[in-house]
Amino acid sequence: MIKMTEKARQAIKDMQHSLGGETYLRFGINRPCCNQMNYTLSLAISKKEHEEILVLHDIKMLLDPSDSHFTDQAEIDCEGDGFLIRNPNPFISPII
Fold this sequence. Notes:
By secondary structure, the protein is α/β, with parallel strands linked by helices. It contains two helices and seven strands, in the order E-H-E-E-E-E-H-E-E.
């Protein structure tokens, strides 16, 4: 299960509202190199065929099932002008 702070939820809802229409929050892992992983967090207007939809605090999130073991128990927080991911799973950078 992914967690989200109230501050992050409000920041995401504000961004979605400014775009208008229905948008999703896409959360996952980017693998630029064989042993490097980074988080991805973006807004999307459409779902990819393989993605699953998770509704968290009335925000529809898109998740790649292959990332679930890295994102499970992650917490999305808002800090300053950006987002911070706290995750008990190893091998992932906390910076976006």
